[in-house]
Amino acid sequence: MTDMLIQLDMESKEPLYTQLRNQIVEGIASYQLKPGDALPSVRTLAQDIGINLHTVNKAYKQLEQEGFLIIQRQKGALIHPGGVPKADDRYLHELTNVLKPIIAEAKCRGIAYEQFTTICQEIYLSLHKKGDNTS
């Protein structure tokens, strides 16, 4: 996958397919993966990172359903050439549902609003910096 390195935590409670999905999305967000870029075949990626091919297939299928990838019989999996669909009301609702418990836990653990927003801003900006380092 171009210069992008996939690193999965085999000890994590987060399923491997979710970790893989998230890292591909991060690669797209940071411009390490660009519209039209081909991803390795399911079999090749599974062998390269040492996981079951069904795990890779599940991640690819989820990314296709979410509009990040298109999967073609002859070309394999490609980063959606037209770009990722823009946020709509459904996505904003999902985003709120995902962030709400994270924010609630941070608040319970004493993370101040300013600190939380700084963390979010740093993560957001780091995705641009990663993209700037690749050509």
Descriptive report:
GO terms for molecular function: DNA binding; DNA-binding transcription factor activity. By secondary structure, the chain is mainly α. It has helices at residues 16-29, 42-49, 53-65, 89-108, 113-132; strands at 69-72, 76-79. The protein folds into two domains: 16-79, Arc Repressor Mutant, subunit A (Orthogonal Bundle), CATH 1.10.10.10; 89-132, no CATH class. It has five helices and two strands, in the order αααββαα. Strands 1-2 form a two-stranded antiparallel sheet. The mean pLDDT is 92.
List the helices and strands and how they pair.
Layout (H helix, E strand, L loop, with lengths): L15 H14 L12 H8 L3 H13 L3 E4 L3 E4 L9 H20 L4 H20 L3
Antiparallel strand pairs: 1-2
Helix pairs in contact: 1-3, 2-3
Question: How many separate domains make up the residues?
Answer: 2
Shape: globular
What order do the strands of the largest sheet run in, or round the barrel if closed? 1-2
Number of distinct helices = 5
Question: Which CATH class of the largest domain?
Answer: Mainly Alpha
- The mean pLDDT is 92
Rg is: 16 Å
Number of strands: 2
Give the SSE order as H and E letters.
HHHEEHH
Strand content: 5-15%
CATH topology of the largest domain: Arc Repressor Mutant, subunit A
Low-pLDDT parts are: none
- CATH superfamily membership of the largest domain: Winged helix-like DNA-binding domain superfamily/Winged helix DNA-binding domain
